[in-house]
Please model this.
Amino acid sequence: MSDSALGVVGDESVADRLRDAGVSVDVGSPADPPTTERVVAVGQTAVAGVGASDHDPLLLPVDAGRGVRSVTRDAVLAAVRGLDDAHVDRHPVVAVTTAGDTVGRAVWDVTAVTADAARISEYAVETPSDSVGQFRADGITVATPAGSPEYARRVGGPVLAPVAGVGVAAPIAPFATNPDHWVLPLDDLTVSVERDEATVALYVDGVHEGTVACGQTVTLSRSGPMRVAVVDESRSRFA
Model:
């Protein structure tokens, strides 16, 4: 294992366990992760914070769900000792822009959904070269491969391997009885609200980032990969 400090985000007890084993540790938060070359991120919020940061560490996820190949808390020390020999999965991260402003970066997913109960709206999805679909629904979620096993899967989308540059777009409670779900490039993918019937809220990795007005476009663009260490202790994303 490298002698340089190891960043830890998300669980002070994990940092204490590593210190007790003689590992030099630099603790940070999801909003202010360490700028170390390697970071242990405990939980999905920590992974999102580290993955969306400007820094590009090698990330070891711990108990972070199915989206990335994470290890258990009990296996952290063994996993850290194996980082020098780790395989690296590269997951796309997307910048989210609306009304001319970048509102965030998504590691997991971007969701536009009606804020009022029992109300639907109409949405359109486009790539730079094609009109993909237009439909009435409660909302739409666009997930990266890391996010595809989570909420997007619960609304019918497929689970994607960490292939650079693609994601899955899935309507939420669509009016159609047999809705489409699309695997699409994440370069300049756009989602727009087509009817002024309900307030539509925008969420980036589960964080509310405002509303989307009728005719307003949300644009997703790749902003670099999140490098995830895969070691012997890493669990399958598909299990």
